[in-house]
Specification:
Structural class: alpha+beta
Number of domains: 2
Order of helices and strands: HHHHEEEHHHHE
Largest sheet: 4 strands, mixed
Distance between the termini: 34 Å
Number of strands: 4
Number of helices: 8
Strand content: 5-15%
Bound molecules: zinc ion
Length: 222
């Protein structure tokens, strides 16, 4: 499959998700509006897939199909994320995108942290890329359920601090509202616990102990 076709496929999936969400929200007019607005983001995103060639090499076709079907809602969210960051001048790293199944934007959103939404990673680096790639994998595994499950866990972890009972509790202090989110909520939502465990590093950069900063979908300290 050529990169141009892959770009077209991902752009079409992005537009399609926008149209379906618009349809559910507001019928035919909603579908037209949702499709058109998403199409604005689908064009630069499809171009990024063509230029960066993330689906080249082994497994690329399979990933491309998953990202355009089961995981299309995540692809849509990633395309919006990509467009917003590109508007702010965040450059695409073509070399680090090629053949990886994900799209690498050079700069992060939160200082000192990387953020991953769908297949789009912002501010990753060699040291933490394994963690970010786990978020890309989680999105492919859970498809349309992924973002709702992530949001739901953030809400529950904020309202019901179950993480106070976790064994790593001795390794950090909660002395402010920021610390509540950065050390309590964020590192103890399911997709972060999984990614930190699988990548073998804690949020502070050391072994899984003291919490640190960041509270967005797939955010990780650099
Ligand atoms: Zn993470």
């Amino acid at each position: 499959m050529t990169a141009a076709i892959a770009g077209w496929v991902q752009g079409t999936a992005t537009t399609g998700v926008g149209a379906v969400m618009g349809l559910l929200a507001g019928g035919r007019v909603g579908a037209a509006v949702g499709g058109a607005l998403s199409g604005i983001f689908a064009i630069p995103f499809g171009r990024a897939v063509r230029r960066g060639e993330p689906y080249q090499g082994p497994g690329g076709l399979r990933r491309c199909i998953v990202d355009a079907t089961w995981s299309a809602p995540n692809t849509w969210a990633g395309a919006l994320f990509y467009g917003a960051l590109r508007l702010r001048g965040n450059p695409l790293d073509v070399d680090r995108t090629r053949g990886t199944g994900s799209i690498w934007l050079v700069n992060g959103v939160v200082p000192r942290y990387a953020t991953t939404i769908g297949t789009v990673k912002a501010g990753s680096n060699e040291r933490i890329d394994r963690h970010e790639e786990i978020h890309v994998l989680q999105a492919r595994l859970f498809g349309p359920l992924y973002l709702p499950l992530v949001v739901a866990n953030f809400v529950v972890a904020t309202l019901v601090p179950y993480w106070l009972l976790f064994p790593d509790r001795a390794g950090y202090t909660i002395d402010s509202v920021a610390a509540y989110f950065e050390r309590g909520v964020y590192p103890h939502v399911w997709h972060e616990l999984w990614a930190y465990r699988a990548a073998g590093r804690g949020p502070s950069g050391g072994p899984r102990r003291a919490g640190s900063k960041g509270k967005e979908t797939g955010t990780h300290r650099r």
